[in-house]
# Entry
Amino acid sequence: MSHEPLALADALASFEALWSPRIVTRVNDYDVRVAKVHGEHVWHAHDDTDEFFLVLEGELRISLREPDGERTVVLPRGAVFTVPRGTEHRPSAPSGAAILMFEPTGTSTVGDRHEAVPAHVDATTGHVLGS
Amino acid sequence: MSHEPLALADALASFEALWSPRIVTRVNDYDVRVAKVHGEHVWHAHDDTDEFFLVLEGELRISLREPDGERTVVLPRGAVFTVPRGTEHRPSAPSGAAILMFEPTGTSTVGDRHEAVPAHVDATTGHVLGS
# Structure
């Protein structure tokens, strides 16, 4: 990892792939990742970790299956939300968005349990920026 | 912690204190904190953890004492930087800034080793938002 400050705008400008996070820095055994997103991700759950989202550009929606039923939270630019471990969720962005995530290194984009992964979703633990 | 999205602008508008982080959400045993800063913090080091910074508004500088000498990195709005564990550092913001940090819950703002803490620096492990 570089030991210089990194502009998130430059990081986002360095790739085009959707739903394919890039790791911008590490904090202990956690990754800070950024991703460009558009359309729907897949329903999935992380059994052993929470997952943090910050919206950098656009609007992100996260559908959640909770004990009381299903709901969708809407995150405009500059909003944050943490999906609790074990909660099935499906991010989506009908008009596109850029997001920052914070989660343990090795966390898969499709979690430990998931629907069939469509071709437009990258099942990955994050890519090194610039690769 | 609320289980609704939180606008960071609203979180920042809810307090005035400088160098006094508010915890906006938790991710496993980590805090996401925001702070308003202006002027100089204090030289300090966290022996057991890295510390992540994202600049939300303004410009943050972080002076670092590294094996090869001292340097200062400059983070404009939208830039990120991780201070490695054990590295003495001193954040400053001559013109003021708003920042977001990730670090383990319980991490002190003045680290495990620090200079005398001046009155304008809040030695804290973070305050609950709204308190």
